[in-house]
Structure prediction request, 519 residues.
Amino acid sequence: RTTMKSLRFISAEAFVSNAEFARKNLGAVAHDLFPLLFKASYLLEQGEVIHDLVENWPLFDFNVGKLLGATLDYQEDLSHRTCSVCLESCLTGLRDYVLNQSSPYMKKLKVVDLTGIKDVEVQFCKCKKTMGRWARTQLLSKLCSELLVYLQQAQCNPGTFEISISVLIDLFVTERNYELVVQALLKKCSCPLKICCVAFRSDNLTLQKFFYIIKLTDPSLLRKLEIVHNVHLEMEHLEILFNSIHFPLLMSLTLPARTFNVRRFTATDEQMLSNIGEKMGEMAQLTELSMSFSVLTGRIQKLLSPLKTPLKMLDVSNCSLNHADMAYLANSFHANHLEALDLSGHDIPELYPSTFFKLLSHCSSVLRSLSLEDCNIQDTHVNMLILGLSPCQKLQEFKFIGNPLSSQALKHLFTFLCELPMLKNVEFPVPRDCYPVGITYPIDDASLCRFDHHKYERVAEELNLILLQANREDVKASTPLFGSYDAAVQETNNELGAYLIKSFKETLEKFTTSFNKMS
Prediction:
């Protein structure tokens, strides 16, 4: 698909295509053409030109998401291109904007917004090297620290110290970049580039380090908080976090697996859960909540009823919800507002079929994403599922991997899915008849790949043909056996793997020590 370019954009491409010529003549370019030249340079991956454009940026703000988004001159959105060459040039250009004393333009820049960059699985940039969220966090922190050292050592123009630029960024902190980010945040007051953390994700951090750095980020500005892998945050720690820190603007909260476990609840724990619910109720902006792999049986109402703003996104996958929980969700004021819902890991047909369909009917007018993985949906349930999904005309994404459905049932379901006008992404299971007879669900990891791959390929082709014949080439259908793409995990998987091996080794050593003592 070719996107139309205006004559202005074609001219901008011609100008920046010769880097040496463009850099030499930037001083003669009108201020209002800088955004156009920036997008053209980004498309052509002209790193040196990008650097010089940013170093001499003549406008009050520099919003990467807007600059790369769809414009009248060029409709294509480039904000999902996390090209390493381009982004490194942006950030080093920003550092040199502060240091540049011979710039012909008055320094007007006040706000840089890096939050509009989208990390996606398939990259189209020629260099094929991406700079993900972790690497952007790392580089910006490094540049801020280097900038301060340089300013303290060099004879700079006094005006340099008066420069104050807020740099809005989604920080991603792990053990490996923790010290660097802490140093940058501690020295924020002295640095002309002020890191403003809008979203914060932490993986592989001790609780002590997590609590320390979260206070440094200025939680009053935080809109999204993700505490994900290998941060051992349990309910009592969450209560301490909410009691000691206020998050007035928080819109999205992701908690790590096993934050809650009601199976070992005492009266004190029940009170703690109520307190956490009340604290979340004080977060007037909170509309997205993810609490997967916690045990929340019978406690959803206690946790969600204090919320004053309806949730738009709820992930309670593998949370052992019972009928009372599902009944609360179906009848709550959240139901009519849910745009994304994940109920994976619950035996929906067996436990609460009618209540689930009631919930689905309430959110059908707004629902965009639905995940029902490992929900024991079988061939006999497909007609009912089609009936429930029919009103969901805004559905863009449907994930139902891990359900025991036959090839025939999948074809029947796909024929219906073609009728959902907004649908873009479908994640479907390996058909049951591709596995050996007698396979039990949910399928364990060891058996997950033991299916007839040739038969699966044939069925996948037939399913894609159904989409093709219905003129739905816009729908991507896939079977990611080990879960959907996660940009953050992809970027830090080496560190994550090393951490898991270390944890396993420590557990093994403790077990051996205990065993030897018993012997």
Summary: Residues 487-518 form the longest helix (32 residues). Residues 87 and 131 are 7 Å apart (CA to CA). The first strand starts at residue 61 and ends at 63. Residues 7-131 form one domain.
